[in-house]
């Protein structure tokens, strides 16, 4: 990851608010991250930490109202796609940014053939005629490892298994050769062996096609296997960001440390109980004025209740490019 | 699908025979006499002879079999002869209305065109209005359009047709003289002028029933659209960069239509049933009006035949709805 290269996707200070009956919910708070060409960024955090909402905010997939993407820039190839018209944004979706969703059982339209659903973006974005689009669809299905692709085009989603459907979803997302693929928990709804197959497939496709990938998950084990860099989210903000090795070797944020402890170990001494992080993630009724993790943090002190920590770099390098953390607590000072 | 259809059609036969028996027995056991319309001055012996002549004194199962035979064999043959000038039926005895002494089938055949034009048109109009309203109301849920649509369909639903019918007559016939209040069945459409007249006299009954039908179907359409708009596949369609038009009118609509088409198909028999009240209000002499007058006159053959025709249509359109369901939803395969 050469420092001089231009990121394909650069998100700066993104802020998304949901307007509800009970007032505003600040789901995404000043999230900044970037994605280098060909890089795989893992995004982890528990449910409700704002991972999915952040990614959907990028390309206008949140229903508005209630969602309101209030501040920030999303630079795709240098152009802020939050500022472009809905029509232009539509031409980014599916063409330059592909999306794979969590549940393949419900993410495909049950009444159209798989072929029809793959062909749609090809015809909408690439202007292919029917025959060309069909040829490309066969190519895509073969690419994602579906045998007998030409005949399978005429099958309906219910005639596929869960893993096969997720392969179809990936084929759809990759149809127009996107620069960025956003995979929102693509393996969560699948059983473990199928999970492994899908992960292998994505690794392989990344190698072949060279697109950058954002991989959202709450499974740190998956991240360790595929990501270049990891971003940990909590309470709608980025709490820690680091290259994958650094994050696992030297986690700085108490939340990251707690997350790593919750991974059950298969080998070694059997622990009596699975580790959990006590408490619930916060519902953010206002713009944060304190650390969102303070209530569940073992190290919280006075400053944590008064001031929301900013991301600061660990060691050399700029925030976002090396290892950075948003925490007032310094583990070295305490450990020593 | 074909074997399914054939199997269902075969199954319909015992179902309909059972229904016919129930209808026949129920109506036969109901109090009343075929002589109720005959003046009291007619002496008792004559009355008894008339009853004898009508065959109303025969044993009940004999009459039932006789009626079935006429319904399924003799009357269809007569109708066929009437249409194509053949003589298959010969001079076999026909099922006669006790009231008018003319063959039941002929009377019904006279009434069908009025019912089909007026009620059928109102149903068609109701669907054509309801679908776009339902789609747009759901797409812009809680917008002023949706609120207005909800309000109007509440009115269409809850205000009975005898009220809206009379209201329209008072306003547009009595006060404004725009439309005739009575439907003229003898009007023959031969040129533009008579066509205009026909349209004019159809307007009010069609409007009354159309409002009612549109209110009902638009509610179904709206709720079905709402259910589908929040589905994951809609998000996928948007993520593919499809235009809103394609997302809503292709992806969501196709899924939403499945239950609505079923409801529409199941509603078609009610067209033939006629809208009894509306036909009475506007004096449209269709099937509904025929049924109600036959009931008043204790005209058992007519009531039994009409009721059974409705039963046949309901069974038939149930099958049609099931077949449509299978065509629209690829997840449902009957074979």
Characterise this structure.
The complex is a heterodimer of chains A (336) and B (335). Chain A has 336 residues and is α/β, with parallel strands linked by helices. Chain A has a domain at 9-96 and 176-318: Rossmann fold (3-Layer(aba) Sandwich), CATH 3.40.50. Chain A is 33% helix and 23% strand. Chain A is built from 13 helices and 12 strands. Chain A has helices at residues 51-58, 86-92, 104-107, 114-126, 130-143, 149-152, 162-174, 192-209, 220-226, 244-249, 254-261, 302-306, 331-335; strands at residues 9-20, 23-35, 40-44, 67-76, 79-80, 97-100, 180-184, 212-217, 229-234, 237-243, 312-314, 323-325. In chain A, α4 (114-126) runs parallel beside α7 (162-174), α5 crosses α7 (162-174) and α7 (162-174) packs parallel to α8 (192-209). The two termini of chain A are 33 Å apart. Chain B has a domain at 104-328: MetI-like fold (Orthogonal Bundle). The mean pLDDT of chain B is 87. Helices cover 75% and strands 0% of the residues of chain B. Chain B contains 12 helices and no strands. Chain B is mainly alpha-helical and 335 residues long. Chain B is globular and about 85 Å long. Classes of the chains: A alpha/beta (336), B mainly alpha (335). The A-B interface holds A 59, 61, 90-95, 98-99, 101, 103, 106-112, 120-121, 124-125, 156, 158, 169, 172-173, 175 and B 231-233, 235-243, 246, 251, 254-255, 258, 328-331. Chain A: It is a peripheral membrane protein. Chain A: It comes from Rhodobacter ferrooxidans. Chain A: Keywords: ATP-binding, Cell membrane, Membrane, Nucleotide-binding, Transport. Chain A: Belongs to the ABC transporter superfamily. Chain A: One of its GO terms (biological process) is transmembrane transport.
């Amino acid at each position: 990851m050469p420092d001089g290269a231009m990121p394909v996707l650069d998100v700066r200070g993104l802020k998304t608010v949901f307007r509800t009956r009970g007032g505003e919910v600040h789901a995404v708070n000043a999230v900044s991250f970037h994605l280098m060409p060909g890089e795989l960024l893992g995004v982890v955090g528990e449910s409700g930490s704002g991972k999915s909402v952040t990614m959907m905010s990028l390309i206008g997939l949140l229903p508005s109202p209630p969602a309101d993407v209030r501040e920030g820039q999303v630079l795709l190839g240098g152009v802020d796609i939050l500022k472009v018209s809905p029509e232009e944004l539509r031409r980014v979706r599916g063409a330059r940014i592909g999306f794979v969703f969590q549940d393949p059982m419900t993410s495909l339209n049950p009444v159209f053939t798989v072929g029809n659903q793959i062909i749609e973006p090809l015809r909408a974005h690439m202007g292919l005629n029917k025959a060309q689009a069909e040829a490309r669809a066969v190519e895509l299905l073969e690419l994602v490892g579906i045998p007998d692709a030409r005949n399978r085009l005429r099958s309906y989603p219910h005639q596929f298994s869960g893993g096969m459907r997720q392969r179809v979803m990936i084929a759809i997302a990759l149809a127009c050769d996107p620069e960025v693929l956003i995979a929102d928990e693509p393996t969560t709804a699948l059983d473990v062996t199928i999970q492994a197959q899908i992960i292998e497939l994505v690794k392989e496709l990344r190698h072949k096609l060279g697109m950058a990938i954002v991989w959202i998950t709450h499974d740190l084990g998956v991240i360790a296997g595929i990501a270049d860099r990891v971003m940990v989210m909590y309470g709608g903000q980025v709490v820690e960001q680091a290259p994958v090795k650094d994050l696992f070797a030297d986690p700085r944020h108490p939340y990251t440390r707690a997350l790593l402890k919750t991974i059950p170990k298969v080998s070694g001494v059997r622990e009596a109980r699975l580790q959990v992080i006590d408490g619930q993630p916060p519902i953010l009724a206002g713009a944060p004025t304190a650390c969102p993790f303070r209530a569940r943090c073992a190290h919280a002190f006075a400053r944590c209740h008064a001031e929301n920590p900013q991301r600061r770099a660990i060691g050399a390098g700029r925030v976002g490019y090396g290892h950075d953390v948003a925490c007032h607590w310094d583990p070295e000072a305490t450990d020593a | 699908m074909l074997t399914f259809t054939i199997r269902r059609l075969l199954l319909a036969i015992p179902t309909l025979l059972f229904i016919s028996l129930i209808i026949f027995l129920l109506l036969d056991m109901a109090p009343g006499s075929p002589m109720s319309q005959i003046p009291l001055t007619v002496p008792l012996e004559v009355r008894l002879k008339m009853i004898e002549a009508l065959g109303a004194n025969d044993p009940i199962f004999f009459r039932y079999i006789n009626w079935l035979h006429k319904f399924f064999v003799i009357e269809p043959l007569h109708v066929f002869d009437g249409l194509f000038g053949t003589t298959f039926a010969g001079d076999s005895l026909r099922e006669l209305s006790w009231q008018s002494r003319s063959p039941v089938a002929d009377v019904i055949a006279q009434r069908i065109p009025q019912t089909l034009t007026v009620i059928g048109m109102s149903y068609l109009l109701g669907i054509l209005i309801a679908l776009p309203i339902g789609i747009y109301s759901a797409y812009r849920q809680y917008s002023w359009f949706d609120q207005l649509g909800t309000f109007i369909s509440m009115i269409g639903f809850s205000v009975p047709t005898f009220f809206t019918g009379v209201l329209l007559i008072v306003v547009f016939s009595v006060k404004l003289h725009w439309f005739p209040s009575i439907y003229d069945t003898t009007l023959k459409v031969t040129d533009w002028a008579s066509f205009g007249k026909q349209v004019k006299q159809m307007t009010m009954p069609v409007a009354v029933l159309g409002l009612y039908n549109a209110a009902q179907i638009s509610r179904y359409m709206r709720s079905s659209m709402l259910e589908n708009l929040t589905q994951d596949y809609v998000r996928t369609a948007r993520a593919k960069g499809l235009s809103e038009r394609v997302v809503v009118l292709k992806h969501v609509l196709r899924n939403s239509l499945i239950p609505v088409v079923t409801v529409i198909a199941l509603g078609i028999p009610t067209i033939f049933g006629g809208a009894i009240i509306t036909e009475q209000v506007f004096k449209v002499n269709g099937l509904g009006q025929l049924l109600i007058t036959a009931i008043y006159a204790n005209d058992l053959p007519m009531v039994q035949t009409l009721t059974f025709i409705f039963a046949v249509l309901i069974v038939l359109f149930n099958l049609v709805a099931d077949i449509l369901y299978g065509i629209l939803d690829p997840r449902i395969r009957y074979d």
